Amino acid sequence: MIIVIIGAGAAGCFAAIETKRRNPAARVIVCEGGTRPLAKVAITGGGRCNLTNTFNLVSQQAGGLKEVYPRGDKLMRRALAAFSQRDCWEWFEREGVRLVAQDDECVFPQS
Which of 15, 36, 52, 56 is 20 to 30 A away from residue 9, measured at CA? Predict the structure, then answer.
């Protein structure tokens, strides 16, 4: 089986890794139109690679997700129910990337 993933951004690379793990016999091909994979991830957080957010401050706000994502709170709620920021943190740490949260709740690689 050949599985083609379009885009080598964060979601595409994550999808490729998980697809190969769940289908070891499959050939997984990632196609990227840009000059290098994960280019946007590398520049997030001022070049420190902001990977996720703890969402602690969001949950403490009166409006919650609706206040932070006024046009996408329902989508974010569904997405986070399927794969939460905690799931993301745990995934990276299982891969050997230790993470740290800053005071502003942004999560970066410890290195």
Answer: 56
